[in-house]
Amino acid sequence: MLKTEMKNHLEKAQKEGKVVLFEEELNYVRKEELSEVNIVVGNSAERFSDLYMELANKETDEVVKENVDVTFLKEEVQYLEKNIDVYLYVETKTFEVIAVDSMSIEVDSVFGTYEILCGLKSPKKKDKEIRAFMEEHLVGDETYYHLMFNGNDGVWDVNFSLEKVNGFHKNMEIGEALKLAYIFLFSLQESLSA
Description:
The protein has 194 residues and is an alpha+beta fold. Helix content is 32%, strand content 25%.
């Protein structure tokens, strides 16, 4: 599935001009021998060029600020800890590659952990593979993820601790935290496609 989504993404983007990928994605493109025409390695703002972000209240889901400017990606992720009553909601067509429509980042009000929430389009039968990936790639002794298959929408409701992903630190920019979550889910899709 990942190979098909990446191929579709490359074809669309190449028609529009240059293709911006993260280094990890470029490595995958090379491994799968997909077209490398006009590909450049970019940062989060470039890769998520059509990004839509909003800040919303965690209790009510009421939008606090919509159409958040891309400069917000430069804020430290600690912003969410300092403003613990809000979460960041993010959409971009780039997420199609990893079979996700949107994701949210928040700091859990009780445990103070940085959490990613998203809906992952993957068959219910992939349960064991998804759980095995999470347990192998989230560092720590305890379970730092929650999965529930939503039969109505046909997606997995996924919640995992971003802090348990290798490379996370509280001083990183929000754009880098988004990239980290994206690459984690990209690696998950790669493992499910193997």
